[in-house]
Amino acid sequence: MSQQQTTSSYRTPGEGPSAHISIITTVAILVLWFAVTNLGLIKPIFLPSPQAVLEQFVAYATGQANDKPLFEHLFASFVRVFLAFWLACATAIPVGVAMGVSRVARGIMDPPIEFYRPLPPLAYLPLIIIWFGIDEVPKVLLIYLSCFAPLALQTRAGVRSASQEQIHAAYSMGASQWQVIRYVMLPAALPEILVGMRIAIGFGWTTLVAAEMVAANVGLGQMVLNASNFLRTDIVIMGIIVIGVFAYVFDLMMRWFEKKLVPWKGKV
Q1: CB within 8 Å of 136: residues ≥ 6 apart
Q2: Percentage of the residues of the chain whose pLDDT score is greater than 70
Q3: How many CB atoms lie within 10 A of CB 28?
Q4: Coil, strand or helix: which one is 38?
């Protein structure tokens, strides 16, 4: 066997296709769910059958439910989550770069970020309502805050991980500080920034339900909360699945972009 064939056939531990394992796991969960609900082992109020959940999905998707159609809930939630996410990207990444480059910026920004980062969104939700009212601003702001901290910290970690040899080499060749940041630190930090974006959008979807508690009349979170008030577990689970599926699809997109933008990650 040639060296090229040996290299191409070699895989480090943990590498290789895992899609078939994920498919088998998903099918096993669905079969178990179908079995325990249809055999009457769990009452429908605690765990409805997959058929009941699918029925509610069809009703919402076709506009036959006693509520707004599913696409209206989806659109409202998408606007809130992605507006907050892109605002976080536009502000958290520069802040993270500044924290990684300047000890002054790190000293200023680190205490407030580390203070509020572990707080659950419901803890400061009342303050946001008092300060900003009950329109769209507090909803987007709550999601924005949940996205900001992890993205800023990941960016800072990425900038700090840049090779000191490359930085000194750039300075020795006459590069300015901005050029070092642009051509050395940011490329080195890009893998961490992309990971931070994946974490941030996950936190955004996690905070969606809490955000839509603020006098929302449309949105996936509002749909789930409203259904829970009437013990409609089938609608609650349907909403949870829809949120999870769309969040997972976006995460897959982020992974694809990560492979395209930083193909060297994990290989050097």
Answers
A1: 80
A2: 92
A3: 10
A4: helix
- Do 96 and 134 fall into the same domain? yes
Cα separation, 127 vs 138, whole angstroms: 10
pLDDT for 237 beyond 50: yes
Contact 106, 156 (CB under 8 A): yes
Considering the domain boundaries, does residue 3 fall inside one? no
The whole-angstrom separation of Cα 143 and Cα 209 is: 10
168-201 burial string, b = 16+ CB within 10 Å, else e? eebeeeebeeeebbeebbbebbbbbbbbbbbbbb
3-state secondary structure of 18: coil
Establish how many alpha carbons lie within 13 A of residue 200's alpha carbon, considering only the half-sphere containing its beta carbon. Answer: 33
Residue 45 placed within a domain: yes
Residues 182 and 56 both lie in one domain:
no
Pair 41, 122 in one domain: no
Q: Is residue 53 part of a domain?
A: yes
User: CA 78 to CA 246: how far, in whole Å?
Assistant: 10
The number of folded domains in the chain is 2
Tell me the C-alpha to C-alpha distance, in Å, between residue 29 and each of 35, 41, 48, 72.
Answer: 10, 15, 14, 29
Range with the largest mean pLDDT of 22-26, 53-57, 133-137: 53-57
Which pTM does this prediction carry? 0.81
Which long-range CB contacts under 8 A does 254-258 form with residues at least 24 apart?
254/194, 254/197, 254/198, 254/201, 255/198, 257/194, 258/191, 258/194, 258/195, 258/198
